[in-house]
Design a protein that fits this description.
Layout (H helix, E strand, L loop, with lengths): L5 H10 L6 H4 L4 H10 L11 H11 L1 E5 L4 H4 L5 H4 L4 H4 L2 H4 L7 H11 L3 E7 L25 H11 L3 E7 L15 H20 L6 E5 L6 H4 L1 H11 L4 E2 L24 E4 L17 H13 L3 E6 L9 H17 L17 E6 L2 E6 L7 E3 L6 E6 L8 E4 L2 E4 L12 E7 L8 H20 L1
Parallel strand pairs: 1-2, 1-7, 2-3, 3-4, 4-5, 6-7
Antiparallel strand pairs: 8-9, 9-14, 10-13, 11-14, 12-13
């Protein structure tokens, strides 16, 4: 995953000189992903076959847990510490001997994910450092042959399944430990060896752990799609796991795109991945934690725009979850127990603008998620569709309302917010709720001006 510092970006530009992957190597997120895709060699722009069937469960799930955990967790200075501090391979690999997690920490991760209301999990099976949390016959730099002396991915898979959660594997294509990892761009023999290694490890992951639901590639450096043989890679994955979904970070379209540390709706299926603080891997000094309200608001915004939310935890070296992570996610889980019907299975909303709330939709039901409680009434402008009934979702108490022109006002509400950190009002409409407020019209005008300007420029 991405370290937000400029030194990381400069590093990637340096090692990928001549290959248009500086943005995608930054984990292919947000707008930079589009720029990189335009510069990359032309490959598949459509999802793999049978896309709608395979991804249907994921569209309904909406909320997942990301876990970044590896040797870097021992140093507690983010997952890019090897690169950003120029730690030599011979020194860094000593951490493999001292990596000794407590028994089965994945059980705690899975329980927390379930309690938070998450429906799937994605674990770093191998991050950029090259250490494999799984049993690999292709390297000794793996958990079964080093400090842990056991298969940490197997424990994770079993823990997730025990909680009824879908199982996802993160796998970094970039590898700082493999001797051919950075030579592959300019040395054809090194490329052959390195690509065979990467494909072989993906085959192991797709073969040795039963049914896998998600494959989450990351950082396609230093090769392009042809160099990685990405088409062949995805074909192998789908042959071994016919129901799996794959992301877009091996230079192909994949089943879903992956904006990182931002919520930016994309064409097709997409998932915003974010940290709980500012770090993916455990960072002892990072106390910039998001509040439970911010997490809920992010989840709502993803659902409002038709996407999913993948929220990260960075366990400590022994696998323990930081107390702050447990506290924040516990509060989110309490909210989800009462309000999850306004999250799961929701569809893109055509009501998007409010100064106090976000929105999700399921059929003709609009869920107004009020994060800034204004008091006895909540007003939403531009609502063209006729409402039929409204209630507080958590309590089921009816909410009176008026609909004058396009102004919808929920009335007779409590002076203080009845729920924490966000209160949800569920309103049933005669047809799909549509908003045409002044804000919407302004955005439409701006978009039209942009289209005309772009058209004249070409």
């Amino acid at each position: 995953m991405k370290n937000n510092g400029t030194s990381r970006r400069n590093y990637l530009k340096a090692i990928t000189a001549g290959v248009s992957v500086a943005a995608a190597a930054g984990a292919g997120c947000g707008r930079s992903q589009d720029t990189a895709a335009e510069a990359a060699p032309k490959t598949s722009t459509q999802p793999p076959p049978d896309h709608d069937r395979r991804i249907q469960w994921w569209r309904e799930a909406k909320f997942g847990m990301f876990i970044h955990w590896g040797l870097y967790s021992q140093l507690a200075r983010q997952e890019w510490v090897m690169s950003l501090e120029d730690i030599p391979v011979t020194e860094y690999e000593k951490l493999a001997k001292t990596f000794r997690p407590k028994p089965n920490p994945a059980r705690d991760w899975a329980r927390l994910a379930k309690q938070t209301g998450m429906k799937y999990m994605v674990l770093t099976t191998k991050h950029h450092e090259g250490f494999c949390n799984f049993d690999s016959k292709l390297t000794d730099y793996c958990a079964t042959k080093q400090g842990p002396r056991r298969d940490l991915v197997k424990e994770y898979v079993e823990a997730a399944r025990a909680e009824g959660l879908r199982v996802g594997f993160y796998y970094s294509l970039m590898d700082w430990h493999h001797p051919d990892g950075m030579k592959a761009k300019d040395d054809s023999e090194a490329r052959k060896r390195f690509v065979a290694y990467i494909h072989g490890q993906i085959r192991e992951l797709m073969t040795n752990y039963g049914k896998i639901d998600i494959l989450w590639y990351d950082v396609a450096v230093p090769l392009d799609a042809a160099g990685w043989e990405s088409e062949k890679m995805n074909q192998m994955v789908l042959q071994l796991q016919p129901d799996i979904i794959v992301n877009n970070r091996n230079w192909l379209a994949g089943d879903f795109s992956t904006p990182e540390q931002t919520i930016e709706a994309a064409k097709g299926d997409w998932e915003s991945c974010m940290t709980l603080n500012d770090s993916w891997g455990f960072t002892a000094a990072d106390n910039n934690w998001k509040s439970p309200q911010r997490i809920v608001r992010n989840l709502v915004q993803c659902g409002q725009d038709g996407g999913n939310y993948l929220l990260n935890i960075g366990p400590m070296a022994d696998g323990s979850i930081p107390d702050q992570s447990t506290r924040i996610m516990g509060a989110v889980g309490t909210w989800m127990q009462k309000n999850s019907s306004a999250v799961y299975g929701t569809q893109k909303s055509r009501v998007n603008f409010s100064n106090v709330a976000g929105f999700t939709r399921k059929g003709n039901t609009l869920y107004t998620h009020v994060h800034f409680w204004p008091g006895s009434k909540v007003t939403i402008g531009g609502i063209e569709t006729k409402p039929k009934a409204a209630k507080l979702l958590a309590s089921g108490k009816d909410v009176p309302f008026t609909h004058s022109g396009t102004q919808l006002t929920f009335t007779d509400l409590p002076a203080q917010a009845p729920d924490d950190p966000v209160t949800v009002i569920a309103a049933e409409f005669e047809t799909e709720p549509i908003q045409r407020s002044l804000a919407v019209r302004v955005i439409d005008i701006i978009n039209e001006i942009e289209r005309k300007r772009n058209s004249s420029a070409t």
